[in-house]
Amino acid sequence: MTVAKIQHYVPQFLLRNFGNGKKDQVWVFDKMTGRTFSTNAKNIASENRFYDFELGGNSVSLEPMLSRLESSTTPIIKAILKADSLKVIGAEEKSMLAVFFSVQFTRTKTFREQWNDFPGILREHFEARGEQVASGSQAAELIRDLTENESKVESAQFMVEAPQHFAPHFATKLWLLAATTRTHPFVLSDNPLTLQNMTDMSPRGNLGLSVPGIEIYFPLSPVRALAMWVSVPRRCCQGRCSECAMPL
Questions:
Q1: How far apart are CA 26 and CA 10, in angstroms?
Q2: pLDDT tens for each residue of 154-169
Q3: Cα gap 105→120, rounded to integer Å
Q4: Contact between 59 and 24 (Cβ < 8 Å)
Q5: Local structure of 145: helix, strand or coil
Q6: CA distances (Å), 101 to each of 17, 66, 169, 194, in order?
Q7: Are 194 and 182 in contact (CB under 8 A)?
Q8: Fewer CB within 10 Å of terminal CB in the chain, N or C?
């Protein structure tokens, strides 16, 4: 099987939903430079051979697996947008989307960069405590900077195991279809799963997938987004609308 050279960490089918009316064209805002421009969806949220790595002397790629997952997910999201409702999906489709969200949560460049930063954070922790790390110890291995291939291998392992660990945290929440207008549209980022928590910040943070009060949002189009909540917030309709009343 031929593996695509340019590999996206945000699926192209989702990027196209945010197109500007021309074929596969989307408007992009670069937060680093402040530049705004229009380009083809294939040119953004992607890198050359992002999911390719060496393992045991063999060349491996997760791109075919991700392509199959996207192919299974695309018609489900299309059906939701066409019907403008979550009532068109059942338990099987919801489980598939939960798997998709689990993988999406771990497949981004942001996730990989955060994982690469971990050894440095751990080194700073030991240094702040004035602790010496013994050469050859488990701690010494943990604070060692990863090579590019090691980073790809470890992030690939996270992606493969993500459905087992994370899918239940998506599937068991209350799913709602959030709406807006094109005057105040939803935007899609290179890290599209957004976590928010309106409860008090704990010493360990409050943005985990299973912490109390967590709200998860995933834009589907400029005017619709999937919201996944632990419970219905007070500012919502308190379950009186048709979407909230349906415990998918």
A1: 13
A2: 999 999 999 999 999 9
A3: 22
A4: no
A5: coil
A6: 17, 12, 10, 11
A7: no
A8: N
